[in-house]
Fold these 3 entries.
Entry 1:
Amino acid sequence: MAFENLEVWFVTGAQLLYGGDVVVAVDAHSNEIVKGLNDSGNLPVKVVYKGTVNSSAEVTATLKAANNEEKCIGVITWMHTFSPAKMWIHGLQELRKPLLHFCTQYNKEILWDSIDMDFMNLNQSAHGDREFGHIIARMRKNRKIVVGHWQDAEAQKKIATWMRVSAAWADAQDMLIIRFGDQMNNVAVTDGDKVDAEMRLGYHVDYYPIADLVAVQNEVTDQDIANLVAVYEKEYDLAENCKEGGKDRSQVIEAARAEIALRRFLQKKEAKAFTTNFDDLEGIDQLPGLASQRLMAEGYGFGAEGDWKTAALYRTMWYMGQGLPKGCSFLEDYTLHFDGENSAILQAHMLEVCPLIAEHKPKLEVHPLGIGGKNDPARLVFTSKEGEGVAATIVDMGNRFRMIVNKVDCIKSKELPKLPVASALWIPQPNFEVGAAAWIMAGGTHHSSFSYDLTLEYLEDYAEIAGIEMIVIDNHTTLSEFKKELRMNEVYYMLNKALC
């Protein structure tokens, strides 16, 4: 039900050249296609038919209306007949919502025995789609193209992916990211141009002193805390020192106090993401690791050490994946494991890893933390599921934002008896040496947003909508070709900036 209040508009292109009867038939076919898409059960967002457009004025009015309808997260176009593309120019210039060009046809197969000129005049998608595709290419307008019959599950699956991405894009356009403290001193990769990010990606970053959170924390009642601790006891296995009467029970209570305050603060500000900084915790009992873990599971974006770009990307990837089964998390390259073909990277953080990726029921524990200078923090301890996933980051390259995506294979991790944190162990594709080298070569962060559920297609669609560079590292990557891609991209973006 995550997307129940959203809709995607379906607009059919035609013209009046073939007479009114053809327009009536086109309209009937379009209604049947939209009903079939909605009834398929494969699409997460409702498709709404907005009619057949036969002139420049109709195109422009429809696409302007799409811009102004909050529920509309994108537009699907289909050229049933030959739709002269010049009539789409002004409307496409106005359109600010994601666009999907659906190259389909009402009938699935050629009607060999009965096909005639009347049929051909009515069913010209093969013709119209190329005309429409030309004008979008000529206008350099970003879009997704899906080719396939409207009844085919594979075509519907591609539309569903684009719908989820478009919903996440809409969500990002009013995303407020709360930043408690700045980024860590002299750290480059977690910083970046917040003005350009808001112009390009939609989200806004605001600084708040930790004292503002402390003021909310001071209003939390004992009953509030007791209610939340009861939730902890229901959802997690508690270590002996965390149970009622345990020596660290007070730290669980303080963790609950921080979580309640942080959630209330974010709700009051209508924020969707936040960052923390362990150098800026004045008035907080402990680093709010447990709070960050649980808030990520609810969909709040999180970035450690002031990393607002990863906080935003996590929120976006979580939003895309709502209702999908395997989960996502903020992660950090923690330490390396050199073991030949099994060489891998341990992913973790001091505390903040989302329990959505846990293989088994997490355990709530309290242990010392040798950084930050605060009391021993509570945290959820677990290891991740096994399986393939994607790790992504967005970095500021000065003249553009670059999304770097690495397909990774999460493998079984050994126990970490003296490192009580949540963790994942993965081998980057195509292998440890090439994957790690390519990530570094592209300027990737030590933080990433990770998902088991999303595929490259989701992130490709996102980069297309945002108009940002995307670099992929997977089983097809070689370092020599990867270098060439980076260099060619550099030339492209430098020339593009010069021409603009």
Note: The longest helix spans residues 249-269.
Entry 2:
Amino acid sequence: MASAGVAASLGVGTPSLGLPVIELDGVRKVYGNGQLEVEALKGITLSIAQGEYVAIMGPSGSGKSTLMHILGCLDVPTAGSYHLAGEDVSTMDEIDLAEARNRRIGFVFQQFNLLPSMTALRNVELPLSYAAMSRDKRRLLAQEALDRVGLGDRMNHKPGEMSGGQQQRVAVARALASNPALLLADEPTGNLDSTATDDVLALFHELHQQGRTVVLITHEADVAARAARVIRIRDGLVASDEVAAEVAR
């Protein structure tokens, strides 16, 4: 297994890595009980440092989706521990998990989940309304996030007036606006053509180069190849964990 330290030594374009953002130790997830028990995760141990760009791959039924739900604080392990940015989230209740998600994680999904009646600016600003901050500050953070993803000139456009790639960039801006510890992207290119896919993956690479921690869930090998580290999940376990010798761009 290649560690985060190996990534730096191989010179794969990874910025200086910081403390772990993700630490899983012996994480198991069991659904059901008795004869109907299904062990989706069988003891996952891994660490992802601040500033890493990691792709997590796995076939259907591998436990990849279950792992994503745990990483995203959408579920908790049956056993083992999960620390997110130093905070133990593995035993939290629903209320505390929701609060941790809002503070620590920016989500990007295959479905852009943008409100069609709102402009890009309002779509990015909306999640910030749940935080205790002024309207002016929310607007400023949303504008800065859209500028960061190259859509400063499209702030007042609605989703229907944008391409798929631009809509996904708005979704990335929405995820970045709260300055989360982790950017977690679940099949973010699944609804995009090849040109838009290249555009969005170039954006993830740029964010990684700026020191952002990016974890990308995908079943596509060519998408995973753009990350600096690829973790493959099979049968509820880590089958391989490799640092790219040369990252595709």
Note: The CA atoms of residues 41 and 236 lie 4 Å apart.
Entry 3:
Amino acid sequence: MEHDVLLQMTDICKEFPGVKALDHVSLTVKRGTVHALMGENGAGKSTLMKCLFGMYSKDEGRIFLEGKEVNFKNSKEALENGVAMVHQELNQALKRNVMDNIWLGRYPKIGGVMVDEKKMYDDTMKVFNDLGIDVDPKRIMSTMPVSQRQMAEIAKAVSFNSKIIVFDEPTSSLTEEEVEHLFKIINMLRDRGCGIIYISHKMAEILRISDEVTVMRDGTWVATEPASELTTEKIIKLMVGRELGNQFPPKTNKPGKVALEVSGLTAQYSLLKDVSFNVHEGEIVGLAGLDGSGRTECLETLFGIATKKAGTIKLDGREVRNRNARESIKNGFALLTEERRATGIFGILSIRENTVISSLKKHLRGLYLSDKSMKEDTQWSIDAMRTKTPTQETKIRSLSGGNQQKVILGRWLLTEPEVLLLDEPTRGIDVGAKYEIYQLIIDLANKGKVVIMVSSEMPELLGVCDRILVMSGGRLAGEVDARNTTQEEIMTLAAKYV
């Protein structure tokens, strides 16, 4: 059956100061299909969707929804007309509960005055039951893991009875089990006649879930093909305009003597309990585990932004306290956080300010900061990370998510850390940029640095790390040699204390 056209975007152009983000891009989405949108970071995928959703006003082009021309002035107007978007960077009222977040701005009222809490609860449960989501509507958002918050955001999009739903990197913080659940929801929505626009860098997902794939590069349309006719290699070639060989660089690092010793690490306010391990100089150690296993909590407790209840941390035989971020940086530790928008970037500041903010002492000349020195370090970071940006003065919030991640990684490298703690370092980053970040991690290990890396992507841990520590229920369930293990062995350990 030929699907009728639900959404048509033709010749969309959008320019920001110093950069043409979209250059005559067109996209057609048919009813009851999943249309994947792919491209490197900075290709213009999210910008195109923000033009559809009314977050940006397009400079040129036309948008048709069910044959009628639309031009949404804001996201509220888009939602009211059946266009919803689940953003990669969650923007939620964290101090409010789940149902408040879902019905914000459209609370059911009693007599048009008081909020009808019972109806709001019942309506939330109806959506959750429909989608098979197991979340308490009265739970405060800030107490939930990112994956559950994302499920709440998906439920919110569905609650508008949307015709078009945009998913921007929806699986970047989900476990394999949660990804399967999300795909069930997407297939259910497709069967109802929704048009799904699916943005992701994960090739296997795209080829599995999509009906059609549109590839963008540097703000332009490259190709639209049926997913059944594509392969991973063909998509990569369309995305980057070149062949990409091996997914991971060769491991050239040679671990030396023990550098970091962690003994009995227990957190005050999280499930982390009695974790002990050693890491050698020049070694890359992965932290695997299911969502909520204590991976992130382990890094945060090591770095001192989560309170330590017990345990010792030694670096090169000397005990370090790491009671807060300032002390940790002074002791040679650096932490790349999982949620870059909430805890990584200073959105209103420039790329230069975001790059040098953790190493300002290096740039002090007497009482003043040296502009020349800060420019040089920022340029080094931009070049080393291959960050796509018009200038150093560009506000970081105007960059794509992957380019923001590169700026933060560059920031930490400039502090010259001895221990680099990475929480999902390639989350939401395209395949070409991932390779560059893997190479940087290996280069750091070659210099004798200690690298501990959390990732939800098993192939990434196996491809980059020397050893993998597996967390389960806040405890260390075991460790494996990355060269001689299997995904099955890691998953068995991950389920040990669940």
Note: The radius of gyration is 23 Å.
